[in-house]
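Record pair follows.
FIRST:
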Amino acid sequence: MGIIIGPYVLKLIPAGVVEEFGLISEMALGFIAFSIGAEFKMTYLKKVGKAPVIIAFMEAMVAVAAVDIVLIATGNDPAFSLCLGAIAAATAPAATLMVVKQYKAKGPVTQTLLPVVAIDDAAALISFGVSVAVAKAISSKGDVNLIATLLDPVWEIGGAFVFGTILGLLLALLVKYYHSRGNRLSAAIGFVFACVGICDMAGFSSLLACMMMSAVFVNMSNESDRVFELVDRMTPPLFMLFFLVSGADLNIAIIPTVGIVGIIYVVFRVIGKVLGSTIGCKISHAEPVVQKWLGFTLIPQAGVAIGLSSIAMQVVPEHGAAIRAIILCGTVIYELVGPIMTKMALTKAGEIQKA
């Protein structure tokens, strides 16, 4: 709908108006990161063990490295390559989980898959935060200060983790004294808004800070589950607006021009996911059936990737339109092919029974 009513098709929303909707994207990303951080509950991580964490980070990082290396090797701008490659880490859990539920899949692959997709987006945010910090340093204009170039990523990432930790502790303290649902929801929304706004002013990564805030909060407060439930009820309209604005911002005329770069991204992201998953499984001594088939269940990509492309447009504005087009086109392909590949992999693994 965003593409159709946007400035490049029916022109119901002018281009200038779409640009003014940037706040919607920023806040939606803040809440996405806030929900991802909730997956880092220590009791949950202890229960599932170290294997899903190792596999999630390995498949994310290898996917990023695969896309980065091939893009740079084929002569693309390093800052552009880093921004686009960083988005390759993100996996959409919804499509994968729907396949598991629909076919009532059971077995070691499914048991490993569920925590991996839960942790994957956290790995994607960390990877993206590091890559964007480096890309900013590379693409900075004017005289290059080596010390500043080295310290900028440290400030952006380290500051985000410290600031997010402080906010998480404060939110846990506030929720302890606020008992009504309205007050708790207001506190959570206010903290996410404050986190994003202050990070923008201070030069921290708002994604990493929001994720760190919720990770600290979920481990420090016994009321965190109730707060996240309230936030989850509030955010769907915001996310729908976010997807509408993302679609409206896509200049469909640029789609045919993405060419070989788009093909590299789509193909080598899948190769990286499968290879990284296999390596992670071997390191964590997962069962052979998990090593063989898990990677093929991690192909879908959607919301987080689209959100990260919005930030990438700000980091490398000269390549922003191309990044957005590649990610949106890739999302369509991955969301169509991904569930089919997931079903095939789980069937081959013997975890989907024939009707």
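SECOND:
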Amino acid sequence: MIYTVGEMAKMLGCPASTLRYYDKEGLLPFVERSPGGIRMFRKQDYEWLQVITCLKRAGMKIKDIRVYINMAMQGDKTIESRLELFTRQREAVKAQMAELQETLDILDFKCWYYETAKHAGTTDVLLNLSAEEIPEQHRAARLSLCQSKKGCDI
């Protein structure tokens, strides 16, 4: 079955302009065109587009996605290079996830902090809390904010 740009965009949940942009940037050499120049997407193109979407969400630059596509179009002789590319991107995503987890931990701590202060009617109640009085899941975030094991006003 053949799909139009609009139909494929709907399947992917993205604007048709995204697919046109990808094509303009050289990311869709596998997409056939009609004699009139209209893009003709096939079912197997969906997987390619899903991978492109994944790489874009993973923070990969368009130029690097283009490199991947070109390697893939060359066949098996680029397997090792493609594996290296995906391994590097996976490590970059893991680093981003660790940063986001630290951010979430601090946000969770601050929510607990202000929920406790709201209940007490003042933030003063939290000034002299020992580490043991802070819920275990928030201790690392508090230490991260204070940069020491001594108390701090946060």
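COMMENT: Residues 79-120 form the longest helix (42 residues).
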